[in-house]
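Chain A, query sequence.
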Amino acid sequence: MHTPNTPNILNIGILAHVDAGKTSLTERLLFDHGAIPRLGSVDGGDTRTDDGAIERQRGITIRSAVAAFTVGDTHVNLIDTPGHSDFIAEVERALEVLDGAVLLLSAVEGVQAQTRVLMRTLRRLRLPTVVFVNKIDRAGARSDDLLADVRRRLTPHVAPLNSVTGLGAADARVRPHSPADPRARADLAEALAEVDADILAGVVDGPEPTADELGRSLAARTADGSFHPVFFGSALGGQGVPDLVEGLTRLIPAAPASGTGPPRGTVFAVRPGPGGERTAYLRLYEGEVARRRRLTFRRREADGRSTEVTGRATHLDVIGGAETLTAGNIAALTGVPGIRVGDRLGELDDRAAQFAPPTLQTLVRARNPAQAAPLRTALLTLADQDPLLHARPTPTGATALLLYGEVQMEVLAATLAQDFGVEADFEPGRVRLLERPRGVGEACAEMPWHDHTRYWATIGLRVEPGPRGSGGVFTYETELGALPRAFHQAIEDTVHTTLETGPSGAPVTDYRVTLTRSGYSAPISTAADFRGLTPLVLRRALERAGTRLYEPYHAFETEVPLDALAPVSAQLASCGAEFTGTTGGSTAWLITGELPARRVREVELRLPGLTHGEGVWWSRVSGDRELKGGQRTGPARDLGVLG
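Chain A, predicted structure.
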């Protein structure tokens, strides 16, 4: 609980489609509450949260940033998240540490594709969310029909808490709805009745809900994520922003924060610093963290194993300026080598967000061959900081990458040039495939006097399928202690490394490898013997087990005009889509289904022509399926080494 001397802390995320005005709204909130001396401009490249050179040049937010202001007895941390769909994973991992969100719409462009993706995620998480309709002072701004679009395409459970005069003009203004206004009260009651049984009973049977009852219902239903208040305004002009701030502090509850017990928190962003030191942004849920305290962070690896990183918080920059990080707040800390996004302070639990892996793969080469080594070092450094970026060297000297989209590739190229001084060329992205064991296979190799190998080691391995999502698991049937620990470790590490490339060139996943036999000759055998022999035995066992190739699929939704249903459905079917639903409304059809990831771009390019520019498309990785015919879509031996 908060003491009277401790401010409430709200961690709020601002989410939106590209160019809806997220960064401008952040600047306005900080300026209005005295956190910055002047308003920054996205066009001018001097905003508080887009502090990277690339973000300034492109005018988009790429990485989550944190800023803060205080209103009354509430300390508000603003997490300004990316808006481009290529960075949706960055958005989702930031959502995990939020108490609430502002979903930003443009009054001109209205509901856009990424807006729907974000609202779907917010509703799934039941994160308290208010909607801010920005740019009311721009020509073409809408209000009533935009609200109708919001109810139809985002969520039906919304109600405006202010209204606009002079819409679409430079002198547009907003007026908060008064509890004393019978019309405003009736409209709010009608909207809340859809999610609140007590309000529904009052509307139907009487007596009509009072202003106090509506206020309590609005706060409760906003807090549980079932209702979304709407505010109109302009981030640049400042109109409606005070209404938004009042709504945030009144309707979104601060998360319970306990100062007792060991510290528990989540790292949601990591920034590289000079000399390779990392700055980690930590949201604390319980306990306290002081400077110089020794901290242990835990993470779950892709193969299911848990690992730890430990260090002292040599520098602790608490958002808001406090000396000690307390529960509920955020701090930037340095001093923990190897810390990554997603690391947990305290015990691991099952509540950690799980992100679909990226499915676009590419090869990167230095434009100047002399920079090949610095390029590889830079990419591996970036990947080590961020588990959502996968990088691995290939035998040809290139570096293989897994990414979420083409824009992410462009941003990475700019990062390499500006932060590392390396000009790089990226091959066109291709969809990444996976292999899984088909059955059970075993193989064994004895020491040289038995099979004439050059390795002084005996290894027997069994390969079999593991459960879906288990990654790679290594176990023993041999007696522990039969081999020196270094030899055991050499076998296990080499198994996982070898299976980064399967028989078809794709990484192998969801496997279980068991050491069935082992032996060595002292003092001749070394760990190098086991590292050299393990791949030979493993590949033979895997060949006997057999593998199947799998390709990623996307779940999709597309909203198309009534007269475009037939051509769009035909295009989707020709691309291998499997339909899960088609529902019609008064103005559009909603088509849902699943589609091979390699055909998604083709549909995205064809949709505008098939719908006269009115179609809306959304898709997201939904898993994988066995590749029909078992054939690859093209040679990708280099690309297949990605883990």
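The first strand starts at residue 8 and ends at 16. The chain has a mean pLDDT of 84.
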